[in-house]
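Here we describe the complex-level prediction in full. Unlike the single-chain runs in Section 2.1, the two entities below were treated as one system.
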Amino acid sequence: MSLPGNYSVVNWGEMMDSSVHLDNVVMRFGHFTAVQKTDLKIESGEFFSFLGPSGCGKTTILNMISGFLDPTEGAVHIGGRDMRSVPANKRPTSMIFQNLALFPLMTVAENIEFGLEVRGVKKAERKKASDRLLELVALSGSGKKKVSELSGGQKQRIAIARALAVEPQVLLLDEPLSALDLKLRQHMRAELKEIQRKTGITFIYITHDQGEALTMSDRVAVMSAGKLQQVADPITLYREPATAFAASFVGENNGLKGTVKSVDNGQAVIDCGPLGIFPGKQVGNISVGEQATLFIRPEQISINQSNQSAHIEAKIEEINFEGSYLTLNANTDCDRSLSVQISSEQYTDALVPGARTTLSFRPEDAVIIAGGDHV
Amino acid sequence: MYKQLAERFGGGLAAGIIAMIAIWLLGMVILPQLLMVDYSFRPNLLPSEIGGPKDSYSLINYETLFNNSIHLSIFFKTIWSSVLVTFLTLLVSYPLAYYLAKVATPKQAALCILLLIIPFWINEILRTFSWYIILAYKGPLNALLLALGWIDRPVRFLSGDGGVMIGMVYAYILFMIFPLYNAIESLDLNQIKAARNLGAGWIRTHYRVIIPHAKPGIATGCIMTFMLAAGSYAVPALLGSPGSRWFTQIIYNWFFEGGNWNQGAAYAFLLLILCIGFIALIMKIFKVGLGDIAK
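The structure predicted for the assembly as a whole is:
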């Protein structure tokens, strides 16, 4: 989709404070704490994602920002304004629902214009706005159609247009792409990013799909069990996970459990029993004798290179050719399966299931994090 | 239908079942109705004159209504009051149905529905009589209102149409609540959230999103309530005063007090035609088809 270059329904270019501040919010339902104390500032114009498995509390956070839920403790500030006394229909936020929630009994144009109708905008002006938004989402001329006549991707775009029509300061997206097929999903990622760039409004995106979070976001908050695990830009998140959960949830990772043997100046050594003793970067507070996990990414493991310090002997169980790279499943002598990724150029005929190989990695590529029971 | 039944039960039994259904429909529904149609076009004659020269078809029984200004005014009063009852029932039921469908927890909804149904385990006549007691001049409602100081002297609820209306709204509330509840319940909660999120207040959310979705349910409830109200006998007989007679009472009188079945049949058909007309009108107003209502 190409956007009209001079697109502007509103003067989104104006520097408006559309930051969102979760000021020590807590959400409890009876005895269940859905969101533990969270203090987080999402900057104006940022594409911010909450990433986590279902039930981690990310949708609850979205509902608190939109005003459908009032936090048990703390407050939400949007653009510096305390939202505690502002009901859902008066907040400068707009939501794109997981099932889109387009109004089936209204036409496409009526859907888009609904928010303006509510605000008492005159019919002619509403029409102008919906025409421009339809152009933005590349569906010009579809205004008179029924919602049921649209394809999945088109419905998606109408939902975006409807949410943008009210000129929100913050756009909330609740797994909006999960109902689309893979191809369309990848296409819509690019479109969303483009719309965000054009409008400059703050996007808060909820997803359990790490691919979506990593490709689109300026920053990602990884959540688990109602708790923020890590807030970082995608590259930092991938390279320097702060918790065992973040390390295992974001991207592919191998986790080797063991006992901390020594900690010295950011470097730690972990004893993984029969697997061996490995050095790695220390993350967070760990102390000698504590249970910890060493994480090493599949692409950081090399095969048959003896010049690296950490070695594991293993047997290849499975090889999958993926085009530019290969994935290997290797089983260590003490029955611990590791995933390895190598580039296609490294492939040799010797790499067959059943062949023995030496896996190795550089200590600076591995991280050692306390805990990790669920890995 | 015969084929399916025959495959299941064999030819003989299938034929028997179909014959029974046919006899039931014909003997219990169609023939009596046809007999009434026949009656309505004949004059009321002495037994000896039936089949004689005076026994000919005419519209005279139907014309009677239009020549009798009292009956005609009761006819239209019945329609108007039934419309009012329908509207009041809708007004009372909608918030409750919405609450049950979208606000209440499953537990609260179950309790509420149970509380709604329990009174209907009691016979309609008894329920109506209890309203007779409640609404009486020296009854508990007047006593309560007096005690609260809301009125200076007791109100005569039972003279005029007030008592009949209250009794009917109460008697038919379930026929309105359940279709409404079913219709609203099927609305995706995200639709309501989306409307709120786009800035709509509660009134607009209801009239732009929830009510359009619930239209078939509203139509079904209105049709049922109207039919029951227009055809009600017990409530106006018990709670009405001489000044608030219902058209059904006149039909009853023709049959059982006037002994003029022909006249009664004609009146009954006029009421039926009217009700069908009302249904057609409601369906047109709400833009719903028969298929929507059968859902």
